[in-house]
Structure formats: C-alpha cells, structure tokens
Design a protein that fits this description.
CATH superfamily of chain A: Cytochrome-c3 Hydrogenase, chain B
Distance between the termini of chain A: 40 Å
Number of strands of chain C: 5
Shape of chain C: rod-shaped
Strand content of chain C: 15-25%
CATH class of chain C: Alpha Beta
Helix content of chain C: 10-25%
Strand content of chain A: 5-15%
Number of strands of chain A: 8
Radius of gyration of chain A: 20 Å
Distance between the termini of chain C: 81 Å
CATH class of chain A: Mainly Alpha
Shape of chain A: globular
Oligomer: heterotrimer
CATH topology of chain A: Cytochrome-c3 Hydrogenase, chain B
Strand order of the largest sheet of chain A: 1-2-3
Largest sheet of chain C: 3 strands, antiparallel
Chain lengths: 361, 171, 131
C-alpha cells in the first residue's frame, strides 16, 4: 500500500469558494488532511484602518454573498452596543424577518449544492428555482438580491408596508408547501440515502471536542442555537433548536431542511407580533463616536458567528474581527474526512456548508 | 505572561465544559511610548468584567455591564504590544481571558485542551507574528497567502497608517 | 434495482415534461426590476450646488467633484449602489434609478479614452443655479 497525496481544491465543482485540503491517501482511504486557505483572503479586517466606522457596514456585508444580511446586522448590533443605542421596535422586527428569510435562502442554496455534489442536478435546479422567489422578495424589500445594504447603525434604512408583509408571508407559506415535495425527495430517494446515509459520522463527543457550531453540532445531537440567547428580538418568538442524532451527512441535510420550515414559522410569528401601522421610526441615529469594545454572537445559517469590535473614540475602529461559523467548523471537517473514502470527501466537505469567503474575509 | 498559570485557567474552563469560541489578537498601537511592563487583565476577566457584554448575549448576573463606558486602556502600554483574548462560551455564558503580550514573547498553545484552537493560533501567528508554541496542527506559515508577510504586525500597521495619511483624501 | 416509477422525483419530472420552462432567456428577455430595486445613480448637474457632501460620504470613493471647476464625476463600476449619496444630497440632484447598470454598453463609448463606466458632468454658471 502506498501513500499518495492528492490536493483537493482549490478549484473543485462542489466548492463554492476555493479551499485546499491536501489529502494523504492510503489506497482509497483518507489518512490525513492538511488545510490551506487564503485563496480568497481580501484583508477586509484591515479595511478598518482606511474606512470610517459608518462606512464599514458596507464592507462587512460584502464579506460573503450568502450570509450578507447577518454580517451587516452583526456589525450594526455590535456598534449599537458600543454606542449604547436602542433600536426602534419595528426595526428590530424587520431585522429578524430579513434574517430568517436570509436563512431560508442560504439553506435552499446549500441543499441545491448538496444535491449537485453527488450529481442530482435536477434537484439542484429545483432548490435554486425556489430560492429565486426569496431573492425576488429581497429585491422588492431591500433593493438588492444578494447585498441588501439595509442595516444602519441604530436601525434599518427601509420599512416594509404591512400589506407587503402579508403578501410575503403568503408567498413564503406557498414556498413551504412546494418545498415539501423536494423535502420528500431528500428524505426518501434511495440514491441520496446511499450516498449520504452513514457517511461522515460525527459523534456527539467528537462534536463537543472539536467545538462544532450550527447545523454541524445540531445534527450530532447537541441542542445549541445562538438564537436561544434571546438577543435581537429572538426572545419574543418561540423556537426550538432543530436537532438530529445520527450525525451523518443525511442528518445535516435533514437539519437544514427542517430549519427552512422553522424559519417560515418564525417569520409568521414575527409578522404577527410586530407593531402594525405606517410611519413608525425605523432608525435611531447615534451621536458621537464609538469608544469601547464588545463581543456579539448571532446565529448565521452556518452556525454561531462571533464579532469582536473595538473602538477607540476615533472615526476608525481599532479592531474588527468576524469569527464565522465555517472557521469554527474547519476542525470538525478535518476530523470527518480522516478515515473516509476518497469518493465521499466532496460530500463531507460540502455538508459543513463551507463559506470560505466568510472564513477568510 | 505566566504560561503554566494561564494553562491552568484554560484547563479549568475545559473541565467545566466550556467551548472555545475565539482566540483574537489586537495590535495595540500605543499613541505614546509608555513604560515597559505587562498587565494581565486576567483577574478582571474571570467574571467577564473585562469586556462589556453586547446585545448578542445575556450578561452574567454577577457583573452588570456598562456598554457605554469605554473599556479602560491597560495601565501600561509599550510599543510592540498585542492583546490576545481567549473567548469561551457555554450556553448563555461568555467569558474571556485577556493577556498583553510583547512582540516575540512565547505564548503557549491551548490546542491540547481545545483541539479546535489550532486554526486560531495558526492565524494569529501568521497575521500578527505572535510566537505561539506547540500548536497541535502546525501549518508552518502556509495557512494564508497574503501580499504583506505579517500584515498586522506593528511595523506593517505603522507603514499603512503613514501611507493612508499621505494618500490623496476625498475632497 | 428500485422500480423507477416509485422514485420520488418521477412525478415532478413527468410534470416538468408537459409544463413550460422556468428559465427566462436572459438577455433576450429581461425581467423589469421591482420598484424598490437599487440600480444606477442618476445626476442632475443643473441643481447641484457642489457642496461635495456626496463625494465625502461615498463609501466606495466613486464620486469625484470639484467646487472650483464645477465638475462632478462618478465611476459607475466602482459605485456599490448603497444610496448614501442620494440620502445626503440636500439639493435632490442625485437619484437612484431601478435599472441595473448597463455599463458594459457605455464602456465602448468612453470619450477621449475615458475609463469604462466613467461619467462626468460640468456645472452650469453659478448664477443660473437655483438657490
């Protein structure tokens, strides 16, 4: 038996962004994996030296195209915490609604990529066709399909009329009903069960040992969800973390599918509970310059994102650090690929939902 | 910094079931050179009082956070100082250990206790030039491919600030 | 081998066989953008008083202007369509149209070797500008 080293990446059909894993193989089994990232490192954290804190929000939301809304929201929440600004109620609800719709869009994107990873292009196209409806909702309400630019420090820039919110809810519920068909395929198709079932099993102890976050941890039986912290109006909606116990790739698929339904339900609750009426304040502009530091945690579609912002009383921030969920899940990914077959490596890597542009900023 | 005491504290977090959330380094660009010395805000940080907690987490009941008050800068600042924060999370709780490190000082790795730490430590070694010793999976400077060798070192930051100031500003 | 008629996608596939395609033939067929979409920045040089606020506040530094030369230019390819300039302009000279930028059509038309996407206006006589 001979050891061979095959580089997985940086370009690979399953990867949305470049990532290199040098796979050390013994026959067809992966013995070791050494990661290299940095192909898409744009030095966005260095931009704080040049860009003022008011404009940094635009930079931050361009860290990634899939998780764009939550990055912008996390930045604004951090600055609001430093400057001691309270967001008006309607703005807080709008952020929650947009965040959950962003989660639906991200999971649909991932389900499509997951299907494409093992060749099921038909299913990939169906998931993305449904995702187009969500992107249309974003274009109507925020002006942009992917990059929204609606988060401002102290609130949001645009309001959504109540009638439009009701229409959006109807559209989402129809999407949820149409998605049931696709979900049935993921659950019952024999080829999917064969490719994903029992592959890349992450046991509960291992998930704790590698500090996995998000659907990776939830698919291994750990009921962790940053939304349960109750910040950003999440304490006003009922939600339970979606947990599966199998820990294999199929469990991670199931977690994300069930989270789509959960998000539609959260949007329904939010539209129900938010204050109705026109002309409500949506932005509470802060005064002065920020000074202080803070840690903010949000639940992005891929897991817990952690922002560390340090301001020193000038127009430029001193330090901005976004520790994205994929960064935290890379050790889990490396643990999973060791011992698997070469043919399963793309599936396993895709099931951590790698968003390398988030990881490398 | 006292390596063994630090590792003992990290070990306590590990025993109690905390999860490592982040190892972050900040380059402390001192406006004026102060006296040399090390200040570990370790004692204050055990209850999380070192950093005001944000809207993103429920504050620990023992420490009332004051998010509007700026965090007091360390009593002594020296050129070439980095501040490293090890952030731990467990459910709703969130605590950090802060250490002020001189450039070149050896920082012990926590990857024996928290396996996932290797990624953060490789990053701070490559981007900041902090000398982290004993990382579990050592990538030998191959993690990032940046144009500047150590982009967040004091020398690189000072060079950039000068270049930014000299560049043509917006009208 | 499983009976093909029991595979879950079969129903869907048969339905797709008889329905019209979901794909829009872009660029032959372009969907009109929604009313709130962020598109291209449009500028009215007549009403501008060259206060330079938009140039100062642009996060992408896409706007260059000069009060003395009464000159205003925008790099459409650098513009990120954030809308901050439209917000801060106190003369309402700037507006955001919903059409996506067709800069590639203007790129070849760059006058005197102008950069693709570079648009430039020269201001009117100060006396003619409305107060």
């Amino acid at each position: 038996m001979k050891k061979t080293v095959i580089p997985f990446g940086p370009q690979h059909p399953v990867l949305p962004e470049p990532l290199v894993l040098d796979l050390v193989l013994m026959d067809e089994k992966v013995v070791d994996a050494i990661p290299t990232i940095g192909y898409i490192h744009r030095g966005l954290e260095m931009m704080v030296e040049r860009v003022e804190y008011t404009e940094m929000g635009f930079v931050v939301e361009r860290i990634c195209g899939i998780c764009s809304f939550m990055h912008g929201m996390g930045y604004c929440v951090s600055l609001e915490s430093i400057m001691n600004v309270e967001v008006p109620e309607r703005a807080g609800w709008l952020r929650l609604i947009w965040a959950e719709i962003s989660r639906i869009q991200s999971h649909l994107l991932w389900l499509g990529l997951g299907a494409d990873a093992f060749g099921f292009e038909n299913l990939f196209m169906h998931c993305w066709r449904m995702r187009e409806q969500i992107l249309d909702i974003f274009e109507k309400t925020t002006g942009g399909r992917i990059i929204h630019s609606v988060n401002r420090i102290g609130g949001v820039k645009r309001d959504i009329a109540d009638s439009e919110l009701a229409a959006i809810l109807v559209q989402l519920q129809e999407l949820g009903a149409a998605f049931k068909d696709t979900a049935r395929v993921f659950r019952t198709d024999p080829s999917i069960a064969h490719r994903l079932g029992g592959v890349g099993v992450l046991t509960t102890e291992d998930a704790r040992a590698v500090d996995a976050v998000g659907p990776m941890a939830r698919a291994s039986g750990i009921a962790t969800d940053t939304r349960l912290l109750g910040a950003n109006f999440y304490d006003r909606v009922e939600l339970e973390p979606v947990v599966e116990t199998a820990g294999d790739c199929l469990a991670r698929v199931l977690v994300r599918m069930r989270e789509i339904d959960q998000s539609i339900d959260i949007v329904r609750q939010a539209i129900d509970k938010m204050p109705k009426g026109e002309g409500q304040p949506i932005e509470n502009r802060p005064r002065g310059l920020p000074a202080g530091e803070t840690f903010t945690r949000l639940e992005q579609p891929r897991g817990e994102v952690l922002y560390y912002v340090k301001a020193n009383g000038t127009k430029n921030l001193e330090r901005f650090r976004a520790r994205t969920p994929t960064f935290a899940n890379i050790p889990a990914m490396i643990k999973l690929v060791k011992g698997c077959d070469l043919a399963d490596v793309p599936n396993i890597i895709l099931t951590i939902d790698p968003c390398i542009s988030c990881t490398e900023r | 910094m006292d390596g063994s005491a630090f590792l003992a504290r990290v070990g306590a977090y590990h025993e109690a079931g905390w999860r490592l959330a982040l190892i972050n380094a900040t380059t402390v660009v001192a406006p004026a050179a102060g006296t040399h010395g090390h200040v570990t805000t370790a004692e204050a940080a055990t209850t999380g009082a070192g950093a005001p907690t944000s809207a993103g987490e429920v504050p620990a009941p023992a420490t009332p956070p004051a998010p509007s008050a700026p965090v007091a800068p360390p009593a002594v600042e020296a050129p070439g100082v980095f501040e490293i924060a090890w952030a731990f999370a467990r459910g709703n709780e969130f605590e950090t250990i802060r250490e002020q490190i001189e450039a070149g000082e050896a920082v012990p790795s926590v990857s024996e206790l928290f396996g996932a730490a290797f990624l953060y430590e490789n990053e701070i070694r490559e981007l900041f030039g902090i000398n982290v010793t004993g990382i579990g999976l050592d990538l030998h400077g191959q993690l990032y491919k940046t144009a500047t060798r150590v982009p967040f070192s004091h020398a690189a930051i000072k060079a950039r600030l000068k270049a930014n100031a000299a560049a043509v500003k917006k009208p | 081998m499983a009976n093909p008629l029991t595979l879950p996608m079969v129903r869907r596939s048969l339905r797709n066989l008889v329905s019209r395609p979901a794909t829009r033939l872009y660029p032959t067929e372009v969907r009109p953008r929604f009313a709130g979409a962020r598109g291209t920045i449009e500028f009215d040089v007549e009403s501008c008083n060259f206060c330079m606020l938009c140039a100062r506040r642009c996060p992408a530094v896409a706007i260059t202007a000069s009060r003395d030369d009464r000159y205003w230019a925008i790099e459409q390819l650098t513009c990120i369509a954030c809308g901050v300039c439209v917000e801060v302009c106190n003369k309402k000279s700037l507006s955001m149209s919903v059409d996506a930028r067709r800069v590639h059509l203007r790129a070849e038309a760059g006058l005197d070797g102008a950069r693709p996407g570079h648009e430039e206006w020269h201001g009117a006589d100060p006396a003619a500008v409305k107060p």
